[in-house]
Design a protein that fits this description.
By secondary structure, this protein is α+β, with helices and mostly antiparallel strands. It has five helices and four strands; from the N terminus they run βαββαααβα. The longest helix is centred in the first third of the chain and has 12 residues.
């Protein structure tokens, strides 16, 4: 079954203005939502960031969008972000690699080559 990704890119404004606390609260809340599959988030020192959250369905995304705490936080977006964009897409395929701490085997090479 395909998953869905919500890609949120942003440029933070100066000052915290309650952002850190609210972001932590929303992260904890999202993790409890039906259909939530996980997320990755990074922010550079200059304030540019990207968060990608993964969901089972468009309905799960809509439920998160409409959650009262998320709605309240979105009302404060102009305090926290100089700019932002949101993209929702269907994930048709995802590949992973174990990382540099694991030695690549001949089997890994064969499986990786056949996946492309």
């Amino acid at each position: 079954m395909p998953a869905y990704a919500v890609i949120f890119t942003s440029q933070r404004t100066a000052g915290d203005n309650g952002y850190t606390e609210t972001a932590a609260e929303l992260t904890r809340l999202a993790e409890t939502m039906p259909g939530y599959l996980g997320a990755h988030s990074v922010r550079e020192p200059g304030g540019a960031g990207i968060t990608i959250s993964y969901w089972e369905s468009p309905e799960a995304i809509a439920a998160w969008r409409d959650h009262p705490a998320h709605v309240a936080a979105r009302r404060r977006m102009n305090e926290w972000y100089a700019s932002w964009s949101l993209t929702v897409c269907r994930v048709e395929r995802a590949n992973t690699w174990p990382g540099a701490d694991r030695k690549r085997t001949a089997r890994d090479q064969t499986e990786s080559d056949s996946a492309d």
